[in-house]
Amino acid sequence: MTKILKVGFDFDGVVAYNPFRVIRAPVTFLKQNILGVKKLQFWYPQKRWQQIFWTILHESSVFPAKGVDLLKEVTKEEKIEAHLVTARYSFLDDRLYNWLDRHNLRKIFKTINLNKKDEQPHLFKEKIIEKYKLDIFIEDNLDIVNHLHKKKWNTRIFWIYNLLDRWHPHPYKYPFLEKAIEEIVRQITDKK
């Protein structure tokens, strides 16, 4: 019997297409090269107006990503065990469940892991990957990819790149979710 791969999926930019994710590259460049911020740290919107702005940015994740149909198929066929791992801050939790229900995706995930304590996204994802001993984690934020990829563990970090950061090297990089899942299916098939 073949072991079912445990695969973790980020939400915004991986399961849900988010057009604003292309601004990450310029923002990272600004933080590191202009402002001199080297430590990986994500901003938390504390004031109500900041949370409204943050909500609007995340509401741009309107459509399922290219590859969601294949994700449904491989989970139904039990080729993978899917875990949703989103570091969205707690004030966005209800919106996430509404989105999953609207697209009939909630039930395909064995677990849905929410950042209820508003932890730093990279540390929250690291903790969940370790908790479930995920074989693969699919992420679109290059900073988080680099952080997780440096860990000494057996989890492979798949990266969904975007137009502005595609030139960065990474051993597992894909233009969208469908290509990443096709690679996972290929690996499963090769092991048989």
Key phrases:
two-stranded antiparallel ribbon; alpha/beta; Rossmann fold; 192 residues; six-stranded parallel β-sheet
Report the CATH architecture: 3-Layer(aba) Sandwich
Task: Count the DSSP helices.
Answer: 7
Which CATH class? Answer: Alpha Beta
Write down the secondary-structure element order. Answer: EEHHEHEHEHEHEEH
Strand content: 15-25%
Q: In order across it, which strands form the biggest sheet?
A: 5-4-1-6-7-8
Rg over CA atoms, rounded to whole Å, is: 16 Å
Low-confidence stretches: none
Calculate the mean pLDDT score and round it.
Answer: 84
Biggest sheet overview: 6 strands, parallel
The CATH superfamily bears the name HAD superfamily/HAD-like
Number of strands: 8
Count of structural domains: 1
| CATH topology term | Rossmann fold
How would you characterize the overall build of this protein?
The chain is of the alpha/beta class. The protein has helices at 24-34, 48-58, 68-76, 93-102, 121-132, 142-149, 177-191, and strands at 5-9, 16-17, 63-64, 80-89, 109-115, 136-139, 156-160, 173-174. It has a 6-stranded parallel sheet with strand order 5-4-1-6-7-8, with helices on both faces. Strand 6 (136-139), helix 6 and strand 7 form a beta-alpha-beta unit. Helix 3 packs parallel to helix 7 and helix 5 (121-132) crosses helix 6 (142-149). It is globular. The mean pLDDT is 84.
